[in-house]
Amino acid sequence: MTTTAPLWLSKSHSHQKYIQSILQQRETIRSSIRSLHLRKRESPQEIPRKIFDYYSIAEGCHRRNGDKNRYVDVKPYDRTRVLVEDPVKGIQRYLNASWCLEQFGHKWWIAAQAPLPVTAHAFLSLICQPIRPPLPKSHQPTGVRTVVQLTRLVEGGRRKAHGYFPSDVGQSLVHAPEAGYPGAALRVTLVESVDIDEACCIKSTVSVSFENHRENTITFQHLLYTAWPDQGVPELEDQKSLIAFIRLVDSTNRQTASADPDPPILVGCSAGIGRTGTFIAISSLLRAHGFLPKAASPSTLSWSSPLGPLPAAFDEDLVGREVDSLREQRPGMVQQISQLDLIYTLLEAAFV
C-alpha cells in the first residue's frame, strides 16, 4: 500500500473545474442521444449511426418495461444491461441494472435502481441465478452474495426504495412474479439484523427460496448505509464512516460462502446512478492504491468510447477517467459535482 498521496492527486485541485467541464460536455452528448431514444427518434445526420447505437437504451424504453423503471429518464444501456435469465424456460427478463467494471480497481459490480414492487421478484431472481460478468469469457459463473443499499426507503418524505424483505427477524414476505412471467413465487426471510455504528450500517442476513421448493435456499448479506442524503454527499463528520462502510462491504463479500472468493456486488441507491456511481468510483480508486484488497478475478476494459479519447489533462487525473468510464457503462453515474468532489476528498483522506 502506498503511504503518500500520488503527485497527480496533489495537483488535481488546480484543474478540477476543467475536468468537471469536460466530463459534463461528454455526458451531455450521451444524454442528448438517450433523449432521442426516449422519443423513439432516428439518428440525425450530425450523429454517426455507430454512436447512436452504442448509447441505445431501446430495451428500457420498450412499452412492456415502462412500469419497471423507477425514473423515466434513467434507463440502462442495452450493451451493458444485466439480464435476468431463466434458462429452463428460455426467458430473459428486464431489470434496470447495469454491469460496471472499475477502471483502476478492476472489479465487477452490478449497479441497479432500487427495486419496485413490480421488479422485486426479478431483482431477487438475479440473486438466485448464476451470473457471469461480460468479460473475460473464461470467467466462471458465480452468484451475488452481497447487496449494498445507499438510500433509505423514504427520504425527505418521498419514497426512494421499496422494501423487499421484512423488518422483523424471523418474518417472511412472498413476492409473486410480474405479469407475463410463469415462474414460482419467492419467499424472502430476514434471518438476522445488526447495527454497525462506526460504519453507519444496518447489516442484514436475508434468505430467499422458491415458495414451492424451500429446501433450495440462497442467503445473502444486505448492507444499508444510512448517512448519505439523496442528491448530495455525507456530512463531513460522516465521511469517515463511509470509508469504514466501503471496507465492511469488501470484507463481507469476501467472507461469504461461495466458490468465488470475491463475487460481483449488487449496489444501488434510488436511481442507481448518483450515489451508486460515486461508491463504485471511490472503491475502485481505494483498491488501486492498496486501501482495499485486489480484485480476486481482475478484469480490464476492452472497449473505447466512440466520443474519442479524453484530453491530455486526464492522463494524470484518475478520478476523472474513472467517472467517465462509469458513465460509459451506465447513464448519469456520479450525478452531482459535490459527489465528484467527494471522490477526490475521500481518496486524499485515505493517505492521511
UniProtKB/TrEMBL annotation:
**Molecular-function annotations in GO:** protein tyrosine phosphatase activity
Among InterPro entries, the record links this protein to:
Prot-tyrosine_phosphatase-like, Protein-Tyr_Phosphatase, PTP_cat, Tyr_Pase_cat, Tyr_Pase_dom
Which stretches make up the Tyrosine specific protein phosphatases domain? Answer: 243-341
Task: Domain (Tyrosine-protein phosphatase): give its ranges.
Answer: 65-350
Family stated for the protein in its record: Belongs to the protein-tyrosine phosphatase family. Non-receptor class subfamily.
Q: Which PANTHER family match?
A: RECEPTOR-TYPE TYROSINE-PROTEIN PHOSPHATASE (PTHR19134), TYROSINE-PROTEIN PHOSPHATASE 1 (PTHR19134:SF449)
Name recorded for this polypeptide: Protein-tyrosine phosphatase-like protein
